[in-house]
Amino acid sequence: MNSLRNTLSPPAGSDTRSIEALRAAAARDPKSSIKETARQFEALFMQEVMKSMRASTLSSGLLDNSATQLGTEMLDTQFAGKMTGLPGGLSEAIARQLQRQMGISDKSASEAAKPLQPLPALARKNVAPHVQSFIQRHDEAARAAQAQTGIPASFMIAQAAHESGWGRREITARDGTPSFNIFGIKATPNWTGKVAEVTTTEYVDGKPQKVVAKFRAYGSYEEAFKDYARLIGSNERYRDVVAKAQAGAGAETFAQGLQKAGYATDPEYASKLARVINTTVRVQRALA
């Protein structure tokens, strides 16, 4: 049994040969090596999680022996591998952080120039054309904001979609001029740019009320994303939200953090936004 145990390969990145291979790969292609390093770290982390879960589980002892222990370890390794490298997972968050620290772009020039593809027939099911169009239209601006804030582009596209009704309820000035304000950012006293004054819904003590409010107006959607990135990245009350998003927090955590920080008055804001984020991620995966 010991000989069989010795034939098992150690976790990726835990032996000298794997480390040397990563070093060689880093010299040739830093971007790819970052992603592989992040994936291997996540694999090691997931194996430790599985090990901790096993250790905290009561065992009957009736069937415990070296063979069952080996089988359990092999099964946990397989489970850890299956949970590693998934979109939106820990490895992506680690890779993004390393790329920012090393000044490496998350998207190559060839990828940036590649035209967006229509959704496959299966993925188009239950996805309205205006939803797909909105996600594609704002992808580049959202990725630029992601590089600035560390918040996933999908989260920001989804928030813009929720605030603007997927672009079908955008804020406009009284003369019909577009404001390009798809994040619903209000014009505070320190705002010196153009404004659009409209009637909106605010919740007071949990009850909706119609009020007239001034919102910021921009010259383009790109300006809106840049201003959102500045607001969310520099405002102290959003610091915890940004930090958790950079660390790989999920849609629910991000949405709840925004609501707690006071981004919106709707008591159901977090749950609504989380659903839109999940839809956005699903469509983006189909487009990838």
Description:
- The protein has helices spanning 2-7, 16-28, 30-55, 66-82, 90-102, 109-113, 129-137, 139-149, 153-164, 221-234, 239-246, 251-261, 269-287, and strands at residues 195-204, 207-216.
- With 288 residues, it is mainly alpha-helical.
- The protein folds into two domains: 2-92, no CATH class; 105-287, Lysozyme.
- It has a two-stranded antiparallel sheet.
- 57% of the residues lie in helices and 7% in strands.
- It contains 13 helices and two strands.
- Residues 1-14 and 107-114 have low confidence and may be disordered.
CATH class of the largest domain: Mainly Alpha
Helix fraction, binned, reads 55-70%
- The separation of the N and C termini measures 45 Å
The CATH architecture term of the largest domain is: Orthogonal Bundle
Kindly identify the CATH topology of the largest domain. Answer: Lysozyme
Determine the number of helices (DSSP H or I, runs of at least 4 residues).
13
User: Uncertain spans, ≥5 residues at pLDDT below 50?
Assistant: 1-14, 107-114
Overall shape: it is elongated
How many domains, in number, for the residues? 2
Rg from C-alpha positions?
A: 23 Å
Mean pLDDT: 79
Number-wise, the strands total: 2
Share of β-strand residues:
5-15%
Query: What pattern of helices and strands is seen along the backbone?
Result: HHHHHHHHHEEHHHH
Query: Going across the major beta sheet, what is the strand order?
Result: 1-2
